[in-house]
Each structure stands twice: as C-alpha cells, then as structure tokens.
C-alpha cells in the first residue's frame, strides 16, 4: 500500500514538473515570435581606391613673400604709390621717403619692390618715421601659395617629395584644393623632433590668402581596386573588428580585417565579399542572429 502511495506521489510530481517545463517552453516560443525587429539601414560592399593620409595644419603664405625695409633710407614717409591688394612689378616704386635734413634738401628717396606680386600690407601712415629697421610693406607672389607643415619623426620615412596633398580652409568649407609636397628639411629640429615640409598649392583666382589657417591631408600611400565599406559599418567588440550583414532579415556577425581608413570609408582585407549587404545604421547594440527590418 505504501509503495502504491509513493508511486502516486511520483506521478503527481512528474505531472507538475512537466506542466511547468511546458509553460516555460511556450513562454520562450511566444517571446521569440514577438521579438521586436531592429530597424537598420544597409549598404553593399563596394570596390574602390582608398588612400592612407597624414594630417597637418599650417598657415598659408605666398610662394615668395618678403617684407620690404628701407635699407639705407631714413626720414619720413611722403606717400605710398600702391594700395593693398594691388599688383606690382619687380623694381616698381612703391613709396617715397622725405630724407631732408634741416638746412639741406634731397630728392625724395624711392622704395622699390624686390619682386613681382601682390601688395599684402602697408605698415605706415603718411608722415611716419622711416628707418632701416622699420618695415614699409609686405609683398607676396600668390599665384601659388605654400603651407609649411611639421612632420613628426616617426612619419618621416613615409613622406617623400612630390606626394599629393588635399587642403581645406574655413573660408571655403566645401572646396578642396590640390597641392604637392615640394620639399622636406634635411634636418630634424632637436627641440620639437619634427622636420619641416613645404606644400605648394596653385591659387587660381587668388582666393587663398596669406595668413589663412589651412588643414592638410598628405597622401602617403594608396590602395587601388580594394573592398571598402562605410566607416560606420565597422564596430569594435572585445578587441576585434566586426561587421553585421543582412542574412534574410537576420543580423549575421562577421569578424573582419581592415586596412586603410579615410574620412568616410574603411578598406576590408578579409571577412567580406563584394556586394554583401552590410548594416551601416542601427548596428550598435545588435546581436548575432537578431531580427532586423530593412529601412526603405
């Protein structure tokens, strides 16, 4: 009789456990069915060219730029014969100086331009004292302009004369100017551990002005015909680089190896194939095999 009682107890407990297990299974099934799909935006893996760049900043100067001093003349400025922004020829008279001494008279001294270019600044007012140590004017050739950059020691081996550069300035934020690295100093500054480089930029229309602040992207290497994806497609997870791709409205995680990166795109060395749909928006917080909904 006792044995029969124990059998009944075991059967009842088993039935209860079975019902509990079934309840949880049903709950998980309902949960999986009702899982909210994450809305995402996708782009296909493309093939293109991508460059490795080094970033610098500097001030724009005329390709040739000189400050004019009255080398031997002392006296007072009679007048300028040019205006700021005006064009001058080499040897052209730009100012007259009264060098008279009390009791003696001299013809006005002529101050000439040492080069052809544009008058950048006139420093004195009429009647101001003129002396060899006082600047008269600044003249610059701005048909081309230059930007001096400071190349850190660890990058010197990557930098060579003739490399292309892309220049931007705040005055024209949507415009990019093309330049080239004309020369690199043969010496490294022992204080800053940098070598000076000089970028030359054609200046059609003279829209780049001496004194402007410039940003320089120096192209030191380029890969052609490689797989690229938008930068925002690549995520970092536990020290690895990953990308999510669309696998029939399911997010599939793929580990990738990357190469060069520019302001918009990242080179993919391995892990993806041309044309694969990668998730570029909505990928943060996604999980492998999570449900997704593609934005139209």
Automatic annotation (TrEMBL):
List UniProt keywords, sorted A-Z: Cadmium resistance, Transport, Zinc
Tell me the GO BP annotations in alphabetical order: response to cadmium ion
Domain of life where this protein originates: Bacteria
Q: Which residues form the YknX-like C-terminal permuted SH3-like domain?
A: 226-288
Q: Which residues form the Multidrug resistance protein MdtA-like barrel-sandwich hybrid domain?
A: 74-131
Which family is it part of? Belongs to the membrane fusion protein (MFP) (TC 8.A.1) family.
This one is known as Uncharacterized protein
């Amino acid at each position: 009789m006792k044995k029969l009682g124990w059998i009944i107890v075991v059967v009842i407990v088993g039935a209860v456990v079975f019902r509990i297990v079934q309840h949880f299974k049903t709950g998980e099934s309902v949960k999986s069915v009702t899982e909210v799909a994450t809305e995402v935006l996708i782009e296909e893996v493309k093939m293109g060219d991508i460059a490795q760049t080094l970033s610098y900043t500097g001030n724009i100067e005329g390709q040739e730029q000189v400050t004019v001093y009255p080398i031997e003349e002392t006296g007072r400025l009679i007048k300028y014969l040019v205006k700021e922004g005006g064009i001058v020829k080499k040897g052209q008279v730009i100012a007259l100086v009264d060098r008279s001494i009390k009791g003696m008279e001299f013809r006005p001294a002529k101050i000439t331009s040492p080069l052809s270019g544009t008058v950048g600044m006139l420093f004195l007012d009429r009647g101001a004292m003129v002396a060899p140590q006082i600047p008269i004017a600044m003249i610059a050739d701005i048909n081309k302009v230059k930007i001096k950059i400071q190349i850190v020691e660890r990058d010197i081996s990557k930098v060579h004369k003739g490399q292309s550069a892309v220049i931007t300035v705040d005055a024209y934020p949507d415009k990019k100017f093309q330049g080239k690295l004309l020369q690199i100093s043969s010496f490294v500054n022992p204080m800053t551990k940098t070598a000076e480089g000089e970028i030359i930029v054609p200046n059609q229309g003279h829209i780049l002005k001496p004194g402007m602040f410039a940003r320089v992207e120096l192209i030191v290497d380029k890969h052609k015909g490689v797989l690229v994806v938008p930068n925002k497609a690549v995520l970092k997870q536990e020290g690895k680089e990953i990308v999510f791709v669309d696998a029939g409205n399911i997010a599939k995680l793929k580990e990738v190896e990357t190469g060069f990166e520019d302001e918009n795109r990242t080179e993919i060395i391995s892990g993806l194939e041309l044309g694969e749909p990668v998730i570029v928006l909505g990928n943060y917080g996604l999980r492998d095999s999570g449900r997704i909904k593609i934005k139209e």
